[in-house]
Amino acid sequence: MQQEEALFILCCGAASYIAVKEDESMKNRKKRPWVREWLRQRKEEGCCVKLLTQLRAETPSLYKNFLRMNAADFDNLLKLTAPLLTKKTTQLREPISASERLMVTLRYLATGESFRSLQFIFRIPHNTISTIIPEVCDAIYKVLQPDYLKTPSTETEWLAVSEKFYEKWNFPNCIGSIDGKHVVMTAPSHSGSIYFNYKGTHSIVLMAIADASYKFLYIDVGSNGRISDGGVFRKTSFNKGLVNEKLNLPPPEPLPGRTVSVPYVLVADDAFAMTPNILKPFSVRNMNAIQRIFNYRLSRARRVIENAFGILSARFRVLRTPIKVDPPKAIKITTACCVLHNYLMCRNNSIYFNPNLVDHYTQDGTLVLGEWRSERASDSLINLQPHRSYIAPNCSTVRDEFSQYFVEEGEVPFQYKHI
């Protein structure tokens, strides 16, 4: 018993000694600050927000370059998004303002800078920025989509789109130009090959339809890059509406000066199946002169969507580098870029859109490539994979009717120089 008592006393002494040492260690250890001092001094010492205030007053062009929009467009966007972005002030801390949240997000979309880089510019921790940006992108899409990215829903609206295509691109009965891009991102954790595309990168797919003025009429974002490109469009709500005749498209009408009625169509490339409402080019093998002219005229109208993507990635350079977030956040970033593109095209076209940025034609029909193509090598928007796709029954007769129109009633004098 005496040995047991001695052992017990010895253990109690050792435990007390350890507890005292731990207590001393805790006292000597520096307390971790609630907020780092260099972050706490965001308002006192100044940050990018103060610089932007100066640029806004003194050099508006630099302000626009920094945020990809002028002060009036920013103020209007802030007014729309502020109710969704404003946080409550508590006893513990003052929240980051809606203005700062919007600024850091627009700068990220404009440059694709890393969150760690942005934290030094705005004095906001990178982990907080990683939360702010998806939240702001979601708010931007919610407030702008109803007015700036609304798909036509009546015959009148579709006819207005068609008239613009006829007026600007000499292509009647056209309701849009369709294409898709792989938006490259870093490989998500534990995703295997789900997002692995044919180019050997990981991506989500942006499927879009553009009108004659480079604005998006419809977007679908989020299909994983592994899905076949034809399969992406088949899954979209637009295709389902097309198949089920729920889009309220105008009924088939003859092309100008002709008698055979043809449906209103989307112009597409070889990545898509040809259906009654989707026109694609003839195969390049053994084409005759009429087919070559059709392909030229189709390509001329289809460049609209190529150039819409070109403007998008030139102005929002986050799309030119692999996006380093998980797929749900990448979807929010991409949709925000698309709706901001339409917002700026509608509000201030002359500032956001430079005609030299896109492909354009001289009076004799000579193609002048847009400036966005000079940076294409660094572009992270990857084309859909071309392949021989299905041609639905009776679609060839529709394409043949367009072909005859382009060499007869719809002939333009410069088309023969480019076939």
Automatic annotation (TrEMBL):
Signal peptide boundaries: none
UniProt entry tagged with the keyword Nucleus: yes
Transmembrane segments: none
DDE Tnp4 domain residues: 178-342
Key words of the record: Hydrolase, Metal-binding, Nuclease, Nucleus
Stated family: Belongs to the HARBI1 family.
Name used for this protein in its record: Uncharacterized protein LOC101895281
Organism, as annotated: Musca domestica (House fly)
